[in-house]
Design goal:
Blueprint (H helix, E strand, L loop, with lengths): L2 H16 L5 H5 L2 H20 L2 H15 L8 H29 L2
Helix pairs in contact: 1-3, 1-4, 1-5, 3-4, 4-5
Length: 106
C-alpha cells in the first residue's frame, strides 16, 4: 500500500468515526473536543472527496494541529485514529520528500 493510500485510509477512518450520519458519536464527544475538531475534520472529509493530495495533506495538518490541544480529552478510539493519521501524514510527507530529491538528481 502506498503512502498516499495509507494517509487516505487513516483520514477516512477518522472522518467516518466522528462525522457519521446518526451523530451519536459526535454528540458523545466532550464539548472541548467537538469544538476543536469538527470543522477541520469536515475539511479533511471534503479533501478526501474532492481535493488533491496536496489539499488533503493541508487539511490533515490543520486537523492535527487543532486536535493536539484536546488530545487528552479524546475518547480512546478517536485518539488512536489521530495517532494513525499523524503517522500516515508523516510517512506521506517523507515519501514525497524522497521523491522530490530523486527528481533533483536527474
Amino acid at each position: 500500500m502506498s503512502a498516499e493510500e495509507k494517509l487516505r485510509r487513516a483520514a477516512t477512518q477518522a472522518v467516518d468515526l466522528v462525522l457519521t450520519e446518526d451523530c451519536a458519536y459526535l454528540d458523545a464527544l466532550p464539548d472541548a473536543v467537538a469544538i476543536e475538531v469538527v470543522t477541520p475534520l469536515s475539511a479533511v472529509g471534503l479533501a478526501l472527496d474532492e481535493g488533491t493530495p496536496n489539499e488533503l495533506t493541508q487539511a490533515v495538518g490543520l486537523f492535527l494541529s487543532c486536535a493536539a490541544p484536546v488530545a487528552r480529552a479524546m475518547p480512546g478510539d478517536l485518539a488512536e485514529a489521530v495517532t494513525e493519521l499523524r503517522a500516515g501524514l508523516r510517512e506521506y510527507r517523507a515519501t514525497r520528500a524522497l521523491q522530490g530529491r530523486g527528481r533533483d538528481r536527474r
